[in-house]
C-alpha cells in the first residue's frame, strides 16, 4: 500500500505538464514572438560569408546560438525554476522524490524549449542558414557532367551568394539552392511532426495522471491564477504600507497621495512577515488533501494548518512531498 501511495503521489506530479489553458496560450505567444524575431533576423542580419570553413560555423551559429539564448531565458523566467531552487536551498530536496523532481524538471524544460524549437523550425523552413552551412559540402559529381569536376569547396562555398558565383556556373545556382532548401525544409517538417507527436503524448499523459476530473482541474487552474494575482497585488500594498510606516517613524511624516492616505488610514499598521512563514509558502508544491478536502497550493496548506494553531503538524506537513 505504501508503494502504491508513493507511485500515486508521483504520478500526480506529472499533471504539472501543461497545467492550464493559460500555459498553452503563453506558449503560443512565445512561438509567435520567436517567429517574428527570426523573420526580422533573416531580413536584416543574416549574411552568409560564402567562404569555405566559415559557412558551416556561421550557419550553425545562426541556428544554434539564438536557440540556446531563448532556452536559457526560458529557464530563467520560469517560476518553477526558482521554486525548485528554493526547495533545494530551504529543504535540501530531501522530501522531493526522484520521479517528482524528474517531472518538475520536465515541465521547466518543456516550457523553455518552445521558443528554441520554434526558432530552429522556422530557420530550417526558410532554408537560408542550412543552405549557407551545407553549401560547401555539396558533391560536384552529383551536379551533372556539365559541372566542372575540378571545382573545389572554395567555389562551391560561394553559391549561397549568387553574385559571387562565377558567370559560367550561374546556371547551377538554382539547382544547388533547391537541393539544399529541400533538405532543410524536410528536416524542419520532420521536426514539426516530432514536436506535435510529443505534445500529443504529454497531453495524454497529463490527462491519464491527473488527480482531478475536468471541472476540478479547471477550478484548480483558476485558483492558482487568482491566488497569484491577489498575492502579488496584496504583497505590493503590504510592502508600500510597511515602507510608509517606517518612513513616517523616521521623518515624522510620509508623502502620500490621496488614495494612499486612505489606504494607510484603513490599515493602521502592518507587521513584517517572519522568514519562517515566507519559507513555508515558498518552494515546490505537490497536490495533497486533508481530511478529503483539497489543498491547492503551499499557501492554501499553510492557511489550513495555521487556523488550527498546530505549528508542529504544519512543519511536518510542509516538508512532506513538497
TrEMBL record:
One of its GO terms (molecular function) is monoatomic cation channel activity. It is found in: Membrane. The chain crosses the membrane at residues 25-46, 58-77, 98-122, 186-205. Its main location: membrane. InterPro entries: CALHM. The keyword Nucleus does not apply. One of its GO terms (biological process) is ATP export. Signal peptide: none annotated. It comes from the Eukaryota. GO terms for cellular component: plasma membrane. Keywords: Ion channel, Ion transport, Membrane, Transmembrane, Transmembrane helix, Transport. It is a multi-pass membrane protein. Belongs to the CALHM family. This is Calcium homeostasis modulator protein 2. The gene is LOC127351050.
Amino acid at each position: 500500500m505504501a508503494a502504491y501511495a508513493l507511485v500515486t503521489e508521483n504520478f500526480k506530479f506529472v499533471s504539472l505538464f501543461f497545467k492550464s489553458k493559460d500555459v498553452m496560450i503563453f506558449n503560443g505567444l512565445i512561438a509567435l514572438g520567436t517567429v517574428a524575431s527570426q523573420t526580422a533576423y533573416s531580413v536584416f542580419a543574416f549574411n552568409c560569408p560564402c567562404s569555405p570553413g566559415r559557412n558551416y560555423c556561421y550557419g550553425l551559429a545562426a541556428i544554434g546560438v539564438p536557440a540556446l539564448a531563448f532556452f536559457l531565458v526560458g529557464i530563467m523566467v520560469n517560476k518553477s525554476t526558482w521554486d525548485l531552487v528554493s526547495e533545494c536551498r530551504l529543504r535540501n530536496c530531501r522530501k522531493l522524490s526522484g520521479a517528482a523532481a524528474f517531472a518538475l524538471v520536465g515541465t521547466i524544460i518543456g516550457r523553455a524549449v518552445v521558443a528554441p524549437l520554434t526558432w530552429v523550425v522556422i530557420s530550417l523552413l526558410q532554408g537560408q542558414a542550412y543552405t549557407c552551412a551545407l553549401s560547401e559540402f555539396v558533391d560536384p559529381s552529383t551536379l551533372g557532367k556539365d559541372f566542372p569536376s575540378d571545382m573545389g569547396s572554395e567555389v562551391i562555398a560561394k553559391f549561397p551568394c549568387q553574385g559571387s558565383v562565377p558567370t559560367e556556373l550561374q546556371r547551377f545556382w538554382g539547382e544547388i539552392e533547391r537541393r539544399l532548401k529541400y533538405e532543410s525544409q524536410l528536416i524542419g517538417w520532420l521536426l514539426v511532426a516530432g514536436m506535435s507527436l510529443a505534445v500529443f503524448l504529454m497531453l495524454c499523459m497529463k490527462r491519464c495522471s491527473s488527480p482531478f476530473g475536468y471541472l476540478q482541474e479547471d477550478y484548480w487552474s483558476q485558483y492558482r491564477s487568482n491566488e497569484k494575482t491577489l498575492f502579488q497585488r496584496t504583497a505590493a500594498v503590504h510592502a508600500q504600507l510597511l515602507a510608509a510606516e517606517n518612513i513616517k517613524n523616521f521623518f515624522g511624516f510620509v508623502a502620500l497621495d490621496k488614495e494612499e492616505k486612505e489606504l494607510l488610514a484603513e490599515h493602521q499598521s502592518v507587521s513584517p512577515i517572519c522568514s519562517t512563514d515566507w519559507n513555508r509558502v515558498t518552494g515546490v508544491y505537490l497536490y495533497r488533501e486533508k481530511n478529503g478536502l483539497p489543498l491547492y497550493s503551499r499557501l492554501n496548506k499553510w492557511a489550513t494548518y495555521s487556523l488550527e494553531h498546530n505549528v508542529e503538524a504544519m512543519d511536518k506537513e510542509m516538508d512532506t512531498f513538497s
